[in-house]
Amino acid sequence: MKVSPSLLSANFADLAPALEMINSSEADYLHLDVMDGVFVPNISFGFPVIKAVSKVCTKPLDVHLMIVQPQNWISQVRDCGAEFMCFHLEACTHIHRTVQAIRQAGMKPGISICPATPVSLLEDIIEDVDQVLVMSVNPGFGGQKFIDSSVKKVRQLREMIDSSASSAIIEVDGGVNEQTGSILAEAGADMVVAGNFVFTAPDPLVAIRSLRAL
Ligand code: DX5
Ligand code: ZN
């Protein structure tokens, strides 16, 4: 299992130790949650912070936009050096156009779906994206409880991807720990995001390793 620790659970008053920990860990990516207070009922951090983080972080960046009109921010995300730019299906009208624009900007496009959004809505875009981010909590906050019906969605998505020409990875975000992570691995997830589980662990490096081993 690939692991993308979420910076949202780090100490915002002192990010350097968190980034040093991530750099020295077995993490595959660093997950960055951008919230606008409109699409989700919270505001996190924006592109100046991500740009500063990108100068210190040695892991590729996995940017998760929880904002309306994500198509307006493609060049800003690109300038932060992101590998994945993921936006919400529920927050964008012209999904196909936005996916193409993200790829044209040199990034890997990802689409995220909230817990109540059916996987079937991805059918006509699945071959154009490199990542599907299944939200296993309602987006906006770290430390929430995993929603069990997400597992069924991961299975449906695995089937959709495997029976198409898509090579998109399935990433799951929210309430991931060793228990939920192992269920997700069995259901066919390729990557998990982990905020609280990593940053409240007695040893975050061990927590990351335990998820990677799933
Ligand atoms: C929530 C964010 C998540 C969050 C996950 O809206 O998208 O990435 O950081 O946090 P945990 O792992 O604590 O649920
Ligand atoms: Zn996220």
Distinct bound molecules: D-xylitol-5-phosphate, zinc ion
Tally of strands: 8
Q: Return residue spans where pLDDT drops below 50 for at least 5 consecutive residues.
A: none
User: What percentage of the residues does DSSP assign to strands (E)?
Assistant: 15-25%
Average pLDDT rating: 98
Q: What gross morphology would you assign?
A: globular
What's the order of the H and E elements?
Answer: EHEHEHEHEEHEHEHH
What is the share of helical residues?
25-40%
Strand order of the largest sheet: 1-8-7-6-5-4-3-2
Biggest pleated sheet: 8 strands, parallel
Q: Helix- and strand-based class?
A: alpha/beta
Q: What is the tally of helical segments?
A: 8
* Rg estimate, integer Å: 16 Å
Query: How far is the N terminus from the C terminus?
Result: 6 Å
Can you characterise this structure?
There is one protein chain. The protein is α/β, with parallel strands linked by helices and 214 residues long. The protein is built from 8 helices and 8 strands, in the order E-H-E-H-E-H-E-H-E-E-H-E-H-E-H-H. The protein has helices spanning 15-24, 47-56, 74-79, 95-104, 150-162, 178-187, 196-199, 204-212; strands spanning 2-5, 30-35, 61-66, 84-88, 108-113, 131-135, 169-173, 191-194. Strands 1-8-7-6-5-4-3-2 form an 8-stranded parallel β-sheet. It is globular, with a radius of gyration of 16 Å. The model has no long low-confidence stretch (mean pLDDT 98). The structure holds D-xylitol-5-phosphate and zinc ion (ZN). D-xylitol-5-phosphate (DX5) binds at residues 6, 8-9, 31, 33, 64, 137, 139-144, 173-176, 193-197.
